[in-house]
Amino acid sequence: MTSVKSLFSPVEADLQDLTNNLKRLVGARHPILYAAAEHLFGAGGKRLRPAIVLLISRATLPNQAITPQHQRLAEITEMIHTASLVHDDVVDEAEIRRGVPTVNQGFGNRIAVLAGDFLFAQSSWYLANLDNLEVVKLLSEVIMNLAEGEIRQGLNRFDTSLSLEAYLEKSYYKTASLIANSAKAAALLSQVSPTLQENLYFYGRHFGLAFQIVDDILDFTASAEVLGKPAGSDLRSGNLTAPVLFALEEHPCLETLIEREFAQPGDLEQALALVFDSRGIERSRELAAQHAKTAIAYLADLPTSEPQQCLVKLAEYTLSRLY
């Protein structure tokens, strides 16, 4: 299978600068927060979101160097993403992220919440200093969406009446909004046409949905070692994702197990067996493929280049993670 990092070759140097700058931007004045952030930034993340920003920056500025504003936008994107992960781990009481202990596990909930707040505040400060109101609006909306998505997920725990549309909307808020809006922001900084800006927004939106659906499938099919967190953790916590929603249509008895929150011995194991005994995972793969295909279609008006081809291959890579 293609390594995701091999698809970042046109922006490899940019991403190395990003990693170095992130540690510097977080600031050595706050040793504990810096340690928490350095722990995250060094934990083997894919840097997928800033890579997309940088690839779009290079694809929309052919034969030109990307600007400091584009580089800073990529850094802001990763800061926002990392801040959301820190807060998610506190809410989920997660102990492992990317195969290493979470910030809350290593430093306690209080420091983890403050570290997340600090990263959001830092990202907002650097965002304001881009001096581009439209970009500020796009990324500010992302921060609202992240909170909205987490609230919706919390309110809908163990709710078997959750519709596929509501699941996809929550997935947009939690995952796709950041990719979509930062993609559009990169295009906006390149001063391309409004039509191309919108197309790149929809590339990010559909890419993000495909990516999240694949993650939700992997929660059932991948090992804890691959996931960097316990397998089946979404269902265990009452977070009903596409494979479960599709399985519920075939096995109504799954509803009883979920609604009593797996209170009886063997409930969770039985629920997992019912998901595997349905077309839930197969239909989720089809749904992810549909979104990945739509994402690629929105790149049609972007001039062909190595960065543009990498954006196409990234959408294909998202699906290949399943095999």
- What strand line-up does the widest sheet have? 1-2
CATH superfamily: Farnesyl Diphosphate Synthase
> Total number of helical segments?
16
Return the structural class: mainly alpha
Strand content: under 5%
Mean pLDDT: 90
Per CATH, which architecture?
Orthogonal Bundle
Tell me the CATH topology. Answer: Farnesyl Diphosphate Synthase
N-to-C series of helices and strands:
HHHHEEHHHHHHHHHHHH
- Rg, nearest Å: 20 Å
Strand runs, count? 2
Largest sheet: 2 strands, antiparallel
Task: Please characterize this protein's 3D structure.
With 323 residues, the protein is mostly helical. The protein has a single domain, classed as Farnesyl Diphosphate Synthase, CATH 1.10.600.10. It contains 16 helices and 2 strands. Strands 1-2 form a two-stranded antiparallel sheet. Strand 1 and strand 2 form a beta hairpin. The relative contact order is 0.12.
Keywords:
323 residues; mainly alpha; Farnesyl Diphosphate Synthase; 2 strands
Produce the secondary structure layout.
Layout: H1 12-26, H2 31-41, H3 48-60, H4 68-92, E1 96-97, E2 100-101, H5 103-107, H6 109-128, H7 133-155, H8 164-189, H9 194-221, H10 224-227, H11 233-236, H12 242-250, H13 254-259, H14 267-276, H15 280-297, H16 306-320
Helix pairs in contact: 1-2, 1-4, 2-6, 3-4, 3-8, 3-16, 4-6, 4-7, 4-8, 6-7, 7-8, 8-9, 9-15, 12-15, 15-16
